[in-house]
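in:
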């Protein structure tokens, strides 16, 4: 069964879901900004106090390779369960991971999460980079939701990534389905071989609340919702003979 990671930087969300069905946590700077995080070091420490036995991904904040390496090493030192997120491309669209500073100065056995992947070419670039590192347990995050937003089928890319990993006998890299848009994505990700899927609190609430819902009952509940809302709004419809 696919592992579900919470995708949030809100400490209250993390407290709420940490003891439920989630197997790990992912964060990013956008989520941190939304949650009002201002002290990134303190944020990392607070999260790890709650998730000391589950894998957690924290992303670097820089756009310059040398500074990214320094930040990656600092983040990784916070704990053995920490995975450092590096975006597959720089802000100018370049594949910066080929820079010598990454293979030369990253701490040995650091765990990485190569994120924001949207094409098979990027999958191969990420795996080629990870193959140069010594040890570690890594993740490649395929942004399936954003791929689907553009009108493409993300399942195909996830399947291709998994098949490539199997063909190359890569044992230390997991495929993650990211930017989840709806509960059904969990089933899609599972059936196409993804190892992990990230879910926002809203998706998790739906998944927990609606799992195994009887669809006949769901139709009746929906009709009742429409009727109740019409009554609460005081909606009236004048029929022709009443006008």
């Amino acid at each position: 069964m696919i592992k579900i990671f919470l995708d949030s930087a809100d400490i209250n969300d993390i407290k709420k879901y940490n003891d439920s069905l989630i197997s790990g946590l992912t964060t990013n700077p956008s989520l941190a900004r939304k949650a009002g995080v201002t002290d990134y070091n303190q944020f990392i420490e607070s999260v790890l106090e709650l998730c000391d036995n589950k894998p957690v991904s924290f992303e670097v904040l820089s756009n310059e390779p040398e500074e990214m390496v320094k930040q990656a090493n600092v983040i990784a030192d916070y704990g053995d369960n920490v995975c450092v997120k590096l975006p597959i491309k720089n802000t100018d669209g370049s594949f910066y991971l080929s820079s010598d500073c990454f293979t030369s100065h990253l701490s040995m056995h650091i765990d990485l999460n190569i994120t924001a992947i949207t094409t098979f070419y990027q999958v191969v670039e990420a795996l080629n980079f990870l193959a140069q590192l010594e040890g570690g347990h890594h993740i490649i995050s395929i942004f399936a939701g954003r791929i689907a937003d553009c009108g493409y089928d993300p399942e195909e890319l996830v399947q291709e990534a998994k098949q490539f990993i199997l063909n190359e006998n890569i044992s230390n890299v997991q495929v993650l389905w990211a930017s989840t848009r709806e509960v059904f994505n969990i089933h899609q990700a599972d059936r196409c071989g993804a190892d992990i899927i990230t879910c926002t609190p809203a998706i998790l609430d739906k998944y927990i609340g609606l799992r195994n819902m009887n669809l006949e009952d769901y139709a009746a509940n929906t009709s009742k919702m429409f009727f109740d809302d019409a009554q609460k709004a005081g909606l009236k419809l004048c029929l022709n003979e009443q006008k």
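note: The first helix runs from residue 11 to 17.
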